[in-house]
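Reminder to self: keep the SMILES exactly as supplied, no canonicalising. Ligand is zinc ion.
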Amino acid sequence: MSAPPCRFSIVETDAPIELLPRDITAYRAGNCGVDYVHRIDSGVEGSELTLVALTHGNEICGANALLYLLEHDIRPVQGALTLVFANPAAYQNFDPQRPFASRCLDEDMNRSWQQACLDNPQTREAHRARELRPYIEAADSVLDLHSTSHAVAPMLIYPDNHRNRGFADRLDYPFPHLLYDLDSYHTGMLISHHERTAPAGASIVAECGQHFSHAATEQAIAVTLRFIAGHNMLDSAQVLPEWSHAPDHSAGHYRIDRVLAAETEQFRFIEPFKGFERFAKGELIAVDDQQLVAAPFDNCALIMPARVPVAGEEVVTLAEYLDRS
Ligand SMILES: [Zn+2]
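Structure tokens returned for the bound complex:
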């Protein structure tokens, strides 16, 4: 059965487009035998890190961060880096008139990392995931670089355990950390596949800011270099750039509780939320046709509310803010 077409193809952007995708065809050949995969080996024993960009084709900051590493010839002082441009075909479809359309070709690639999809791929994303699978499973740690529709704070997202949390806290990352339970959050996420198959190091998503902003690229470079440094693999002479965003009230740890889906086309938030707004239990968040949608618990934060609610599709993630004083 073929997958439904990508659902992000019909909406225009309310986000300014400061950056366009670059021509990355010079990096197609790579050195691993798989297109758009580059391995940079120090020749010294150490950790294997896989750095992933373009899991979502229109999230260009990740590609820019990997290009920064390649163009500045940044090499690990021990271990090896593997740089993966995950969905270059979607990236190369970018149309500034329809900038959300290039998120994917057939399906969300961050839902393709499930055994059934990998064993029997039905979409272009699932085929590509199968091709990339060895580079995820062989990695001690994986960083998957993303960006957001709204201009909200950058954030890290990772399976909730001591290993990931300890590593993320050592990054000294002054923005939200979203912790999730591997068995109850989205299936098919790339870092969840890594966490299940190679649980030695860290499995982390970095959301770096608004898709088409300069700031997201600067943030992606900053978090990528810190991720490498966090594994003692970055030359100590390398200057770490400042974060491109100022920390705000949203900083701290959150536990992802659930993902809400819109029941009807009439789903509307009571205000145009952008993310990280917090609610007490029982406070109204949205109306879905005649149904009131209220916060189901205290310190309930909205994470990545949908720009355009679609019936039957996820519309917002609810997370409990944990660092309340
Ligand atoms: Zn993404």
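Points to follow up:
The first strand starts at residue 37 and ends at 41.
Residues 55-56, 59, 146 surround zinc ion (CB under 6 Å).
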